[in-house]
Amino acid sequence: MTRAAYRAAITWSARTGTELGLECDVHFSADDQLICLHDLRVNRTSRSRGRAIELTVAQLKRLDFSRLGPRRWLTTAAQRELVTLQELLIMVREARDRGVPVSLVIETKHANPRGAEVEYRLADQLVALGWDAVGSPVRVISFDQEAVERLGRLLPNLERTFLIEKSLGPWADGRLFDGVRAVGPDLLLIKDDPGFVDRAHAQGNQVHAWTVNEPADIRFCQELGVDSYTTDYPDRVAKILGP
Question: Residues 138, 104: contact at Cβ < 8 Å?
């Protein structure tokens, strides 16, 4: 989730004309800003250690998120730099103003030290931008059912996806809770139970699979009728799915 990564995604979408949702996970920094960072700690994705919520944005921006280890001299500043949600919102708005078909898929991270505040702050930022109305280029997602329901109350016009990782559990029959019409299971869950896609569709729900990277997996999901693909390789998905 570096500045360079998002720039590369926007450039690819502009060049190919492919609609692309830029995914980000958000939680708080020490100075009360929403940052785009998958983990609550910086250990795995940077060359440093510690909890993100104990570091200010200025401190986080001094860390190296390029994941190239000691070869820092090979990277650019943008490849090393974490971005805030506000910065990413501006990048997407400017890209859309140029006609680039990009949107945002924003995951609120749970559990996090400030709990439900992350949804309230996200809603404030989207309302300020006018992206809380019908037709907003934002989908909100979470693994936490309460968070998804809260987002529905705060941002009733936005599309929501309920993410599932370890087990289909009570959702195995394809039903979801009120107002949610998309489920995002781990690809491995679909592989274990391919019929889930048809069951979800029978209930009027979409299936948004993650993380679908390999050509064989992309074709597998295509044959099942999966509706949306979260991937590290959008070019592979676009090539197989076609126009």
Answer: yes
Q: Please return the burial class of 207, using the count of CB atoms within 10 Å of its CB with bins 0-12, 13-18 and 19+.
A: buried
Neighbours of 77 (CB within 10 A): 12
Query: Which amino acid, 33?
Result: Q
User: Three-class SS of residue 205?
Assistant: coil
Which pLDDT score, from 0 to 100, does residue 74 have? 76
Instruction: Using the predicted structure, report yes or no on whether residue 68 has a pLDDT greater than 80.
Output: no
Average pLDDT over residues 98-107: 98
How deeply is 133 buried, as exposed, middle or buried, from its count of CB atoms within 10 A (0-12, 13-18, 19+)?
A: exposed
3-state helix, strand, coil split of the chain in percent (to 5) is 40, 20, 40
Asked if 182 contacts 206 with a C-beta cutoff of 8 angstroms, the reply is yes
pLDDT at 243: 74
In the predicted model, what is the mean pLDDT of residues 10-35?
98
Q: Are 183 and 159 in contact (CB under 8 A)?
A: no
Q: Tell me: the pLDDT tens digits for 155-185?
A: 999 999 999 999 999 999 999 999 999 999 9
For residue 86, the surrounding DSSP H or E stretch is helix 85-97
Q: Using CA atoms, how far apart are residues 150 and 170, in angstroms rounded to an integer?
A: 20
Please give the full DSSP string across 2-71, using - where no structure is assigned: BHHHHHHHHHHHHHH---EEEEEEEEE-TTS-EEE-SSSBSTTTSSS-SBGGGS-HHHHHTS--S--TT-
Residue 237: predicted pLDDT: 98
Question: Which tokens in the block code for residue 7?
Answer: 């720039």
Across 175-204, b (16+ Cβ under 10 Å) vs e yields ebeeebebbbbbbebbeeeeebbebbbeee
Give Dmax (Cα) for the chain.
53
